[in-house]
Task: structure prediction
Amino acid sequence: MYSEATRAALLDEATTLFAERGYNATSLEDVAAATQVTRGAVYHHFAGKLALFEAVLVEQERAAMAAVEKAATASDPLDAAIQALSAFLDKACEPVYSKLCWQEAPTALGHQRWKEIEEHYAYGVVERFVELLMETGHLERKAQETTTQFFFWMLGGAGLALAGAADADKRRLRDEWFDLMTRSLRGMRP
Amino acid sequence: MYSEATRAALLDEATTLFAERGYNATSLEDVAAATQVTRGAVYHHFAGKLALFEAVLVEQERAAMAAVEKAATASDPLDAAIQALSAFLDKACEPVYSKLCWQEAPTALGHQRWKEIEEHYAYGVVERFVELLMETGHLERKAQETTTQFFFWMLGGAGLALAGAADADKRRLRDEWFDLMTRSLRGMRP
DNA sequence: TTGGTCACATACGCTGTGTATGTGGTTAGG
DNA sequence: CCTAACCACATACACAGCGTATGTGACCAA
Result:
């Protein structure tokens, strides 16, 4: 069964190329060549360039959110949220993840489709935490949707900032973002 | 002197089309046809598709930031910042501005070039306000760069949220974002 | 009146996507 | 064990859209 291996190899090479050169600057020919197959193989496994990118993206999101959920072990919702935040910032320090999910994804898919996918992953996770924090009185119970968008978007800003930063700065920037977000959270207590 | 008029008409039609259909879905043929000229005219006035979009974008940014600066009349830095914020949110309620500057621009130009342009406009304005607020003790004086990015990004989130919202919800969402941002600012006092 | 320039139009080549069809190897059925 | 079907991929072609090179009429300028 060569099929699965080829598909996995295509996904892998596509992940690297999309992250390195960006979506537009990467042709399916490039991906095929890197995998040592032809474009025919790509179209056999994926409906098109967009579908290939979506597959790459979904895998990144899935892995990242799994890491986040795994980290949030505390029983206190606020502690759990902070653990999750911390885990996310760690993830965001990996340039491939940040670049693909926060830079390339909106570019490639258009904002509409991008947000649809996010609903199932990052955005959905933020949504659950915000809800929990409101229920337990750590956040004022109002404008829930907007509050979720607010924090979701902050995470994206942090992700992008970390994605673009030099390795030497990452630790410091990570901590600065962490501090800003927790402070901002504090400003929103009832 | 037809030249200036043609250029202005091209810019105008391009603004509409890029905002309505997005950058990728708008061909230069579309823009030329809408202006009732040929693609030749487009290439006479602009170096290419990207240059045309940049011209459209810069005009939007210029107008928006002019409106923001004009609104910030208070002598107290915090009051002025809040006036500026309020003016920005008003601007963001205009779908053409929000869509072009916050959705299409990163898509079209790539993140790198987009941020370069923003430095001169929105980001630059936020930077000055943050600096002022830190100098006058309204914001804790640390992580200035990250704090700027934080607020800049927050404004982007608000812009996008408002860009995508139904007209009926805009007023409410505008106020919710305003509230969240001022609260978040409060959490960052020394 | 003629040479030059400006403001476009026309024509062509190239890249990249998607699709339709071809092909070798493997497997299932008689 | 032979053949027919199918799977996994390759090849070939059509077409859109960008950019560029060249053509053209109008309008001066000497």
User: Anything to note?
Assistant: The radius of gyration of chain B is 18 Å. Chain B touches chain A at residues 22, 24, 103, 106-107, 110-111, 142-143, 146-147, 149-150, 152-154, 156-157, 160-161, 164, 173, 176-177, 179-180, 183-188 (CB under 8 Å). Chain B has nine helices and no strands. The mean pLDDT of chain B is 93.
